[in-house]
Amino acid sequence: MSIITSYDFSEDQNAHFLRQILLFLATQKMLPTPINYALSYEYISGSNKRLSNAIDSLIKQQKTFDKELSINLYNKFINDNSLESFDKINQDLEKLINNTRNIVSETSQKASSAGIIFEEQAASVTSIKSNNDLQKVISEIADEATGLATISQSLKEELDSANQEMVQLRKELIQVRESAATDALTGLLNRGSFDKALDNMVDQTNESESCLVMLDLDHFKQVNDTHGHLIGDSVLKFASNLLKKHAESHHFSARYGGEELAIIMPDTTIKKSAEIAEKIRFALESSRLMKKNSSESIGKITVSIGISRLNKNDTFEDLIMRADKALYQAKETGRNKIVIK
After folding, report:
1. Residue that finishes a domain, picked among 153, 181, 209
2. Is there a single domain that holds both residue 165 and residue 268?
């Protein structure tokens, strides 16, 4: 299961969000940057409850949403990876928001001017003495009404265009976030995304059982030293695909670091966690991996696994520490086994 938020809002909803986001940015005096837009989108759409609660709290405290605060919020609640990929989106987003603001401002001015003219013409009706004068005023009112209708239609078209641009930018933001959240080699979540997903699981208030599974490929350095790093990478990708295959849809599979992998298992019993871990262990042990070009055997590849269950008062660190201890025990007592703490 991905930790990337899925946005399934309609075009009409996104058009509504755009207007609300512009108002929110202006009210909180936030610059129209992609970071602030991402924060505002998830806040306005209600798609990130933890972020919304944090922002509500900051607003009550009358905090200023400066650059540092915005980045901290983004890092904690959305993504904690490099922001370099946002440069192009930053320019496009600033242009879109500024253009939309200018369009709305210009339309407002035109509508205000038309309203003044209507008032003047309405007042002149009381002093009209001939049919010719009345027809002239009616004609002028009709012209203004036509002009106002044209302005309204133009505004609608511009906002529709802005909404389409927003939809495209939103897709680009999701793609950047997905890329930033995953490990390039294995396709699993990276360490930053792992930390976020585990933190979310620890913060859950429900009473269901949850577990953390840590996996470490046995003698992986020997594989690299004997066959080279490209073969080592292939072995790591193969093992990662086993995690994707056997983990359930609501689990989070990640590359914890080096040859160490992990599966965060919310709403999963220790028994079920052990069953999934055993499927992965057995599948890897049973595999006969060979070099692609020469069909030379890479040798038997195994994995040691440690599992910890989330206890009531556990911290993020407590859960990892117990899983690490279980993994270390599996390594120290023969490898290619599962230990539960």
Report:
1. 181
2. no
Give the pairing type, strands 338-340 and 303-309.
parallel
165 is written with which tokens?
């641009």
Out of 259, 260, 275, 317, the active site residue is 259
- Which residue, 96, 78, 75, is CA-closest to 33? 96
Sequence-ordered list of residues with C-beta below 8 angstroms from that of 303, at least 6 positions apart, any chain: 215, 216, 217, 218, 239, 280, 281, 284, 285, 336
Write phi, then psi, for 307 (nearest 5 degrees). Answer: -125, 135
Contact 311, 249 (CB under 8 A): no
Collect all residues with Cβ–Cβ distance below 8 Å to 50 and sequence separation of at least 6.
Answer: 77, 200, 203
**What is the enclosing helix (H) or strand (E) of 322?**
helix 316-332
Work out the mean pLDDT of the chain and round it to a whole number: 81
How many Cβ atoms sit within 10 Å of the Cβ of residue 84? 8
Same domain, 244 and 278: yes
- Position 3 scores a pLDDT of 44
In the residue annotation, 259 being an active-site residue is answered as: yes
pTM of the model: 0.56
| pLDDT over 80 at 256, yes or no | yes
Encoded amino acid at 328, one letter: Y
Contacts of 310 (CB under 8 A, 6+ apart): 201, 202, 209, 210, 211, 212, 319
Query: Does 143 fall in a domain?
Result: yes
Question: pLDDT for 195-240, tens place per residue?
Answer: 889 988 998 766 789 999 999 999 999 998 998 989 999 999 999 9
User: Of 316, 207, 195, 336, whose CA–CA distance to 269 is shortest?
Assistant: 207
Cα dihedral 35→39→42→44 (10° resolution): -130
